[in-house]
């Protein structure tokens, strides 16, 4: 039988981004998904007869979307702390370094407990999936076994994920929330080995030094080596607030900048994603560009902790790969729709400060939340838009659910509906979510 036969066929409106178009709207289109979950074809409805012969499907098996509904690519959260979800929406009254010591480290310490971890990790995976996050790049905690549990739970609910066991061998604030250098290195190796052994199709490990101030030079060096010899993804934090930048300058006097610290230890690669980057210099942005490393823009967190405002226009001008992140729980919202809105607010605040500033449009943030995120995580060969050959990671948006948070009028175009959804919509409008062709929302009744 035909290996590439279409297993699922949808007909209706598809909205996605391409390199040239931040929002491309494909009306009355047919899209086929093969049994591997990959997009096998994308064609105009007037070609449907021909397509059905080539891809061996019955016209009666086509799923016709309703008027006003559309598919968009699943959103990519390029930076989220799964354990911090337990206190999301609270504790936002201190700047970063004090916030970490007072709230974050004491909570993360509790994830030695598998029961506690199972509860939070199940909730955060379900919550983000319901909100259209088909791919999440997670920080877990320093605990290997519950970090593996996060991978297991993402796999159980069908979310695509990069999962990092956090590494930190420096922490004066909270006893028992750090590792010895040796332990951090050994446990990272065990984490990678164990996670890869489980062969979850959509869940991969990512090397995760918390950030330079919580790592010794020896640990940074070892993590760079491990990433290099196994060709792994890397994530950390950079230049989030000014006090942190000054601290790094003091702690690493031999390095010319914060970015140079990560570069020095082989942690700035084309598979690296660094959260924040609010206070990077042009020279540092050039180092990002040269290395192919990406930035995760986490606007809710940057505002909530008063860290800074990332100038997205400037990052884009430097041609640095860029995605959006929720940074739960420095950011209080687990929804990527919120990340888009806060990113728009930040861009407009920059214009209020400087009327000559060229703001970034909602269409560009739509791209950053989907295709941009996939590029930031070096997954754009697999996900990010509806290109034939990529996995079908998608969310079905309905503007006309009974309790919709916005209204549609006769004169509204698909573009208007998209803009209303991005500004006003929520998980009520996200009626179905697909990862690699599998429908993962609504959840199975047993879940
Ligand atoms: N820098 C180091 N650790 C963290 C964290 O958990 N959250 C944020 N926002 N910044 C960090
Ligand atoms: Zn973070």
UniProtKB/TrEMBL annotation:
Pfam (any one): Amidohydro_1
Matching InterPro entries: Amidohydro-rel, Guanine_deaminase, Metal-dep_hydrolase_composite, Metal_Hydrolase, Metallo-dep_hydrolases
Record GO biological process: guanine catabolic process; guanine metabolic process
Organism domain of life: Eukaryota
Annotated ranges, domain Amidohydrolase-related: 71-440
A GO cellular component annotation in the UniProt record: cytosol
Catalysed reactions, semicolon-separated: guanine + H2O + H(+) = xanthine + NH4(+)
Regions crossing the membrane: none
Gene3D superfamilies: Metal-dependent hydrolases (3.20.20.140), Urease, subunit C, domain 1 (2.30.40.10)
Keyword presence, Chaperone: no
Entry keyword set: Hydrolase, Metal-binding, Phosphoprotein, Zinc
Subunit note: Homodimer.
UniProt cross-references to PANTHER family, sorted A to Z: GUANINE DEAMINASE
Protein name as catalogued: Guanine deaminase
């Amino acid at each position: 039988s035909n290996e590439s036969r279409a297993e699922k066929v949808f007909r209706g409106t598809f909205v996605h981004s391409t390199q040239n178009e931040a929002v491309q709207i494909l009306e009355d289109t047919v899209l086929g998904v093969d049994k591997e979950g990959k997009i096998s074809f994308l064609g105009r409805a007037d070609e449907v007869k021909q397509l059905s012969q080539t891809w061996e499907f019955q016209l009666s098996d086509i799923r016709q979307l309703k008027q006003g509904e559309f598919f968009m690519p699943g959103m990519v959260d390029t930076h989220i702390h799964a354990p911090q979800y337990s206190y999301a929406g609270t504790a936002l009254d201190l700047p970063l370094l004090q916030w970490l010591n007072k709230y974050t480290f004491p909570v993360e310490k509790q994830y030695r407990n598998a029961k506690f971890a199972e509860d939070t990790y199940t909730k955060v995976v379900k919550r983000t999936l319901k909100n259209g996050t088909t791919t999440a790049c997670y920080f877990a905690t320093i605990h290997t076994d519950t970090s593996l549990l996060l991978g297991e739970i993402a796999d159980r609910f069908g979310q695509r994920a990069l999962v990092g066991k956090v590494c930190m061998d420096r922490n004066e604030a909270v006893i028992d929330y750090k590792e010895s250098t040796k332990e951090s290195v050994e446990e990272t190796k065990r984490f990678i080995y164990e996670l890869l052994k489980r062969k979850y199709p959509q869940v991969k490990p990512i090397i995760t030094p918390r950030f330079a101030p919580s790592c010794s030079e020896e640990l940074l060096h070892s993590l760079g080596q491990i990433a290099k010899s196994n060709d792994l993804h890397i994530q950390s934090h950079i230049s989030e607030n000014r006090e942190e930048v000054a601290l790094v300058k003091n702690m690493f006097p031999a390095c010319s900048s914060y970015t140079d610290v990560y570069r020095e230890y082989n942690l700035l690669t084309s598979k690296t994603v660094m959260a924040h980057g609010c206070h990077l210099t042009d020279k540092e942005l050039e180092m990002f560009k040269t290395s192919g490393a990406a930035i995760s823009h986490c606007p809710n967190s940057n505002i909530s902790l008063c860290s800074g405002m990332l100038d997205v226009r400037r990052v884009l001008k430097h041609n640095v790969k860029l995605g959006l992140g929720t940074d739960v729980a420095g950011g209080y919202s687990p929804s990527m729709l919120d990340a888009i809105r806060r990113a728009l607010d930040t861009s407009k605040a920059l214009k209020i400060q400087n009327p000559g500033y060229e703001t970034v449009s909602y269409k560009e943030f739509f791209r950053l939340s989907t295709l941009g995120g996939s590029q930031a995580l070096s997954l754009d060969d697999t996900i990010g838009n509806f290109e034939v050959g990529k996995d079908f990671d998608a969310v079905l948006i309905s503007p006309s659910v009974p309790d919709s948070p916005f209204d549609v009028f006769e004169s509204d175009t698909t573009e208007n509906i998209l803009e209303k959804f991005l500004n006003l919509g929520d998980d009520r409008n996200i009626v179905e979510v697909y990862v690699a062709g599998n429908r993962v929302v609504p959840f199975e009744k047993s879940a």
